[in-house]
Amino acid sequence: MINFEWIYFFDLCGTAVFALSGAIAAGKHRMDPFGVIVLASVTAIGGGSIRDALTGATPVFWISDPNYVIVILATVLACFILVRKPHKLPQLTLPIADAFGLALFTVIGAEKALMMGLSGMSAVIMGLITGVGGGIIRDLLCRQVPMVLRTEIYATASIVGGICYTLSIEVGMDKTSALFFAMFSTLIIRLSAIRWHLSLPAFDLKSKRP
Amino acid sequence: MINFEWIYFFDLCGTAVFALSGAIAAGKHRMDPFGVIVLASVTAIGGGSIRDALTGATPVFWISDPNYVIVILATVLACFILVRKPHKLPQLTLPIADAFGLALFTVIGAEKALMMGLSGMSAVIMGLITGVGGGIIRDLLCRQVPMVLRTEIYATASIVGGICYTLSIEVGMDKTSALFFAMFSTLIIRLSAIRWHLSLPAFDLKSKRP
Amino acid sequence: MINFEWIYFFDLCGTAVFALSGAIAAGKHRMDPFGVIVLASVTAIGGGSIRDALTGATPVFWISDPNYVIVILATVLACFILVRKPHKLPQLTLPIADAFGLALFTVIGAEKALMMGLSGMSAVIMGLITGVGGGIIRDLLCRQVPMVLRTEIYATASIVGGICYTLSIEVGMDKTSALFFAMFSTLIIRLSAIRWHLSLPAFDLKSKRP
């Protein structure tokens, strides 16, 4: 983990955002309260757990630091009390918060890989897994083709962010600047995609061609 | 693992029950015999495998102890021979057996976490993962929204059982009493839910509100 | 890993084949280019990753050896350029290539388990996980009941191949012969199943019986 208290604080914010998106998905499937907790948890800490299991950084991060689970429980509780009418939320609140979570988790995943001495390529992949893994599990459990695999420029933003961070560190930039640069890149790409409905041309083998 | 032979025996019984539920799910999807073995296996040892991978207790438990796989193979074989007409089974046989498996796996998962020196909160989570993880993978492979996330008080029973076990150990109760107390709590909740179709109020964001 | 350069070369070929099958599945779901990369990757290295996470061989194999990821990226790139009309491919190209990948990954998984000193039974299971794990994740992400669980003799071929390899090693056959014997067994079973649409009798609990 990056050695700054405010990064840790941001990390917990990202956890809360992803927990919220899991809880809302659970609400759309009418799950019971503990089902909501389970879905919020896998969304928030699923990606980091896969990263830690693959790299051998076990026990995984949330086992030794209870704050992650506490943040998730608090988020779910707040969600039960407050989020009664999600369609009353300003429409883009959740995607924008989610974009911040994605940007931050990507950088944290890449940084954790670099700290373990893994290669730059592995760091990009670990950033991607940390950023999108939880959302993939959430969508699988709700029986949907994972949003990140076909929505506008989602995995793309994470991969670009991971590359920016890794390259910045390799050319000697300090961690704080690299963090801001990589997060900024991810956010600008993802938010632009949301704002203007951008998407990369799909690889489409389904439609007929003459 | 709890150091009593009969716990080990119960653990193998829980494995058989969960393998049976996996095999029956496979039969409902007309899988071939080795597909049935795969589905029975992930149901029976999937939860414990995730637990061990997350906590770093690798190689996972069934690699070093062949009895688990043997029990699964024997269960599947028995299932091929005997279970030709599952609708002829007394209707509640499987849910009740499953409730026992859930109760036992929850306690074993929590105990294993405590033995590794993890916190009480982590022990509850590990109990939950051990108890419901296999069923979640089974339902995913059969392309269903996991039963444990929306059925009557399933994850709930496991979480309560895990809390009972962890608290009992922390207040100094001996392991055998704690085991019975926690299993009893889980069973009473789950069986009541089955018997009277109890469920917690769903967190429902789908229906319209005036 | 078996200590022969050409095995390593074959392993990379298997990786390319499975990456191709993932990329084609992604194309059928109209994913964006980075979604295609993600799906190709989980198909190609998902099974081996699960194997390594379960046995504790972490960091998993592709983290320390960048060639696997490079092969995947090259395959996806080639796929973008060349595979515009998959229905123009000779119809059995992909299943046959896939059968080779299955045979090779099965043997490599079993060999890796034996090298770690695991039992013969665990070696067979690790061969199976390596051979079919990636395809299962691919199908889950595309929201399909995994092909390997119900298609003609797929898991079966892998299990037989794993047993052949493990038994051959245990009776003292040298690794190269055991490898060819086991791959040959897997291929003959799988290719026969493809050619003559063989399948084992399904375990069918769905249809009514008089």
From TrEMBL, chains A, B, C:
Q: How does it sit in the membrane?
A: Multi-pass membrane protein
Q: What subcellular locations does the record give?
A: Cell membrane
Domain of life, source organism: Bacteria
The regions listed as transmembrane in this protein's record are 6-27, 34-54, 66-83, 116-141, 153-173, 179-198
Glycine transporter domain sequence ranges? 9-83, 96-167
User: Which UniProt key words apply to this protein?
Assistant: Cell membrane, Membrane, Transmembrane, Transmembrane helix
Family matches, as PANTHER family: INNER MEMBRANE PROTEIN, UPF0126 INNER MEMBRANE PROTEIN YADS-RELATED
Family that this chain belongs to: Belongs to the UPF0126 family.
Q: What is this protein called?
A: Trimeric intracellular cation channel family protein
